[in-house]
Design a protein that fits this description.
Elements (H helix, E strand, L loop, with lengths): L20 H8 L3 H11 L5 E3 L3 E3 L2 H15 L4 H10 L27 E2 L5 E3 L3 H11 L3 H15 L1 H21 L6 H18 L12 E5 L7 H12 L4 E3 L6 H11 L3 E5 L8 H8 L13 E5 L16 H14 L1
Parallel strand pairs: 5-6, 5-7, 7-8
Antiparallel strand pairs: 1-2, 3-4
């Protein structure tokens, strides 16, 4: 599977008519009674009903509940998590920048619903930066590509640049080579390499360790797609959170050794494919403990990537998107 697909499959669209309570519960990996309790007790119910008392959950309603799940997974009490979930703006499919991000330029309006970047890459209504990056990648123009990627990160912030500019372009390149046989593979590799370099250059210096605040980032064994973890590492460093990044395909024994040596507050395990997403491994890591007797600690394990979709892994958390992942880990580190 291509590197450009790693952000797909994690945020499925909610049908126009909304979801039922049962469908929402299955999507979140909780019991329907939990969803109803959050509605009655904390006011996290749907904005509208159909057919009398039948609930229909909109994308904004579901995003609010997903934030509730992410916040409670960090240990925040449910009442406080509900308050934060209500007050925080839901991340739309194209995430807005953090409040401290530089002002955003207005997106360019396209004349047709399916535009092309002068090269056959279908970019839909993607912003102008996507088209420029796609052109530079197809020309294999390293200097222009580096400049455009760094400009996007500087102008929009890491999270918004990743969600609104980089991911749509990676996905467009991936679709292009998948529909063209073996053509354009070099373009995808070229683009992925330069995205990785831009993330490293845009990230601040390594944050010194703080006891109990470090986050470990690793791909599960057999998984080599690292870009999503690289942008998460950069975003956490930007917020002063210590990160230990171990990259692709970390063997089980090495992962366990790294956890014991660092004693992290959280561990993020990326799986692009269901064939690499090991539920027993995630549960084993979540059950690990360290520290003196009577004051032992366990990490928060986050299962990230489309490989973990479906039935949730007991004892782990699965935040909604990059922004919520960063928010959950920042909240955990602050404690």
């Amino acid at each position: 599977m291509s590197e450009s697909r790693e952000a797909e499959g994690t945020e499925a669209a909610v049908p126009g008519g909304g979801l039922t309570t049962g469908e929402v519960a299955r999507r979140l990996g909780v019991a329907p009674t939990t969803v109803r309790t959050w509605d009655h007790r904390y006011g996290l119910g749907p904005a509208r009903h159909t057919g009398g008392r039948h609930r229909r959950w909109t994308p904004e309603d579901v995003a609010r509940l997903e934030r509730m799940c992410a916040l409670t997974a960090t240990g925040i009490p449910p009442a406080e998590a509900a308050r934060l979930a209500r007050e925080t703006q839901a991340p739309a499919p194209a995430a807005v920048p953090e409040p401290t991000a530089p002002p955003r330029r207005a997106p360019a309006r396209e004349a047709a619903p399916a535009s092309r970047a002068g090269s056959g890459l279908r970019l839909g209504d993607a912003r102008q930066e996507c088209k420029g990056i796609a052109r530079a990648a197809l020309r294999l123009d390293a200097a222009a590509l580096d400049r455009l990627l760094l400009d996007a990160i500087r102008d929009h912030g890491l999270i918004a640049a990743w969600t609104e500019v980089i991911v749509p372009t990676l996905q467009a390149v991936g679709r292009k080579w998948e529909s063209s046989g073996e053509r354009y593979v070099e373009v995808e590799h070229f683009l992925s390499w330069h995205v990785s370099g831009a993330l490293r250059r845009a990230a601040p210096d390594t944050v010194p360790d703080r006891p109990g605040a470090t986050t470990v980032l690793a791909c599960v064994p057999g998984e080599n797609h690292t870009l999503a973890l690289e942008v998460l590492s950069a975003a956490l460093s930007e917020r002063g959170i210590p990160v230990r990044m171990f990259g692709g395909a970390l063997p089980v024994e090495s992962l366990i050794a790294a956890v014991r040596r660092t004693g992290p507050a959280a561990i993020a395990l990326w799986a692009q494919s269901r064939t690499t997403a090991s539920r027993p491994l995630a549960q084993h890591v979540a059950a690990m403990e360290w520290g003196v007797r009577g004051a032992r600690r366990s990490p928060l394990v986050l299962t990230l990537g489309p490989g973990w979709s479906g039935r949730p892994v007991p004892g782990t958390a699965r935040p909604y998107g990059l922004a919520d992942t960063v928010q959950a880990l920042a909240g955990l580190a602050s404690r």
